[in-house]
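TL;DR need structure tokens for one chain.
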Amino acid sequence: MSTIVNDIGSRLADTLKRLRDNRGWTLADLATRSGVSRAMIHKVESGASSPTATLLGRLSGAFGLTVSQLLLEAEGRGSRVARARDNPVWTDPETGFRRRVLSPPALAGHLELIEGELPPGAAISYPASAYQFLEHQILVLAGELTFVEGSTTHRLKLRDCLALGAAADCEYRNEGRTPCRYLIALTRRAA
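>> reply
TL;DR here they are.
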């Protein structure tokens, strides 16, 4: 198992700037598209601030990428085999949420499998833009997950699986006393 630490932070900063530059966007353009302030984008791109899960969701959605694609782009990986010992783990500095990419990097964007672990009492939010181009399912592996999808709240227990509906602002919450582990399966929505 490898943990994504500051090294990935600098590569992620470079990747975000490169993606923005390749599209010809200014900081203001990306701020408008993502709902993230220009100042915060500048801090992330310069490596002065480590992005949270929510921030990565907003930025990746603006680029039309999943968070996995954004992280894999920063890692520069391209194999068709994902070894458990090498699966990258990213930890949200704000909540302690851990995200492990399970899918082979070469397949990112087609079918992605991600394992999430949300500490007790933690919550992470993603904007609708992070889901607008995805089919998304969540399977609870341990603990319980409260998933808020727009105005609907789903309480998921062990082995419950939820297929998300139309893109909406979403929040993952662990209201329990033990960590909640879940599997996320993502595919691109048919155009």
